[in-house]
Amino acid sequence: MLAIPFQTAADDYVRGDVDEDGIVNISDVTTLIDYLLSNQWPEEQLQPENTDFTVGGVTFTMVYVEGGTFFMGATAEQGNSAYSYEKPAHRVTLSSYYICSTEVTQELWMEVMGTNPSYFIGTNLPVEHVDWYACSSFIEKLNELTGKQFRMPTEAEWEFAARGGNKSHGYKFSGSSYISTVAWYKNNSSSKTHPVATKTSNELGLYDMSGNVWEWCSDWYGSYSGEQTNPTGPSTGTYHVNRGGGWNSNETFCRVSFREPNGSASNSNGIIGLRLAMSYPN
Description:
- This protein is of the alpha+beta class.
- It folds into two domains: 35 residues, no CATH class; 229 residues, paralog of FGE (formylglycine-generating enzyme), CATH 3.90.1580.10.
- The longest helix is centred in the middle third of the chain and has 15 residues.
- The protein is globular, with a radius of gyration of 20 Å.
- It starts with 10 loop residues before the first helix and ends with a strand.
- The N terminus is likely disordered.
């Protein structure tokens, strides 16, 4: 019997509005019957699932982020907290992609690289003390091991995911407007990192996109401009972008729109890590 996928783009089919025109008529009913009798659901209506990958004995989850359009930067919920370099809020359209449910852990880094550069030691703690170049080397080796094309997220991909993608509730932080529920930050971290996924996730099931450690993006830092599609930042620059805030950050720096403009690619310390992304399809 055909298993109908719930909570996906096929929800309209479950409700009977097969052609998604806002009404249910005899054409919808006959088309739906045809699908059921053929035991074949229209492939384009099925949302891809999250995907687990295992390297050695370490498993991590890549979360599917359905593409969409959003306003990036200093949107209304950011209030007076936003800085000038978060402005103007501008419309960005992104294709679908995957992003890791957690920051890269020390156990995954050690499995790939054979060493652990972190100051705070623990297998399920986020890796830190990694500069942009070290992260690039890690991803290159991970791709050799898996045959996939993992990468760092673009800044736009990072913010869209942190906001909850198309499921966004418009929170100030990633998953809540109350920072303590979703983030390890200056007021609750006891001046150290914490195991990943021990705070509440955001709307997409992503953890620690506010707080714990800052996360590298692939982009060079640059000023915002007008409407864009799949932006990747300037072709050259002085700094790479850090996002999300860390265990030593105050609330302002953990907001979904805050961007650290001084991320020297050779900068490595106990507050910077990374999160994996991957294009769809891969």
